[in-house]
Specification:
The longest helix has 19 residues. Helix 1 crosses helix 7, helix 6 packs antiparallel against helix 7 and helix 12 crosses helix 15. By secondary structure, the chain is α/β, with parallel strands linked by helices. The N and C termini lie far apart (about 60 Å). The radius of gyration is 22 Å and the shape is globular. About 45% of the residues lie in helices and about 10% in strands.
Length: about 350
């Protein structure tokens, strides 16, 4: 019988419980579902901290951990660093940062969940690499570590042996990808079905929507409510003139100010919001493409198809085939696009 792969999750005071337990449960289910089928236990998981013993989580629930010294001389297949509520907690344990740096070279893979990316960056493991983190911290990661190429619109990113996932529950998506990498798509899909993540998370966003992408630099400004209204009225007249009237501005001034604030035109944002809505419908329902197009304010199915190709690079039918359970049981739903939405919009400018 082959030895199980050792999954080590390195934690610290203030670690996010969800970042930890999501992947841990996925690996546990992989072991349970494999029992009697492969003749091996796929994974052996251990949670470690610098000194071992009780570690305080961000929600106050303590974790019982083993000391990192317990792994001296032992092989680590996959090292995972979960995120925390505060960046200061994530990078504050300098002994843990040093240990991750020292052990990373011996690991088959090194991974982060959410803002655990900051610990990998502090350890120098992301220099010259692409990485994902929670969308709210993408700017800070890029500013603090200019040698890291931040991919803001991705559930997870794999760059060689380093894997990073976005916000919180995407740790489950990362674990599913690791399971597929180790034992194939079928086991990953079996685990996803038990976790019910093949139906996607609420809203079906890859990480954040066109609304969040536009508002990341301005949490609340004069266009925030307008964009919320657009998302709730996709079949309304959303021309520049109509939107300008709603914003109590002249069309020319509205278009100029909006483009300066959002770095793209109102028409592009309207299209992106409609595509986001259509994606959710494709992911969460089996409605016909023509019906989805009508509900999201597109003139027809062909109009929606063009918007999908421009915005996310694939037509709606192909998107549904790749990313939803309504296509076939053989498809998995946990891979995100690599090209940020803001970059895709900029390419069309």
């Amino acid at each position: 019988m082959s030895s199980p792969r050792r999954i080590v999750i390195a934690v610290y005071d203030g670690v996010s419980l969800l970042d930890l337990t999501g992947p841990l449960e996925a690996f546990r289910l992989a072991s349970v579902l494999s029992a009697g089928k492969r003749g091996i236990e796929p994974y052996q998981c251990v949670v470690v901290s610098t000194r071992g013993g009780a570690v305080r989580t961000s929600v106050g629930v303590p974790l019982v951990t083993e000391a990192i010294s317990s792994l001296d001389g032992k092989q680590i297949d996959t090292l995972i660093v979960p995120g925390g509520f505060r960046i200061e907690d994530v990078t504050g344990d300098l002994a843990l940062v040093d240990w991750v740096r020292e052990r990373a070279g011996d690991c088959k893979r090194v991974c982060s969940v959410c803002v655990g990316t900051f610990l990998l960056a502090a350890a120098g493991l992301l220099e010259g690499r692409r990485a994902a983190t929670h969308w709210m911290q993408c700017g800070l990661l890029a500013a603090r570590y200019p040698g890291v190429t931040v991919v803001p619109d991705a559930i997870f990113v794999r760059d060689g042996p380093v894997w990073s996932s976005a916000g919180m529950t995407t740790g489950i998506d990362l674990a599913l990808a690791l399971i597929e990498d180790d034992f194939g798509r079928q086991l990953s899909l079996d685990v996803a079905r038990v976790l019910v993540v093949y139906m996607k998370r609420a809203g079906g966003q890859s990480q954040y929507s066109a609304l969040l992408a536009g508002q990341v630099e301005a949490v609340s400004d004069e266009f925030t409510e307008l964009e919320r209204w657009i998302a709730e009225n996709l079949t309304a007249n959303l021309s520049v003139e109509a939107l300008a009237e709603r914003a109590c501005m002249s069309p020319r001034n509205f278009a100029r100010v909006y483009a300066a604030k959002r770095n793209c035109t109102p028409a592009k944002v309207v299209e992106a919001i409609r595509v986001d809505a259509a994606r959710r419908l494709l992911e969460e329902s089996d409605e016909r493409l023509a019906a989805v197009a009508r509900r999201c304010g597109f003139k027809n199915e062909e109009h929606m198809r063009g918007a999908f190709v421009r915005t996310i690079g694939v037509p709606p039918r192909e998107y549904r085939r790749r990313f939803t359970p309504y296509a076939s049981d053989d498809e998995v739903v946990f891979v995100a696009r690599d090209v940020p939405l803001t970059e895709r919009l900029a390419r069309r400018a």
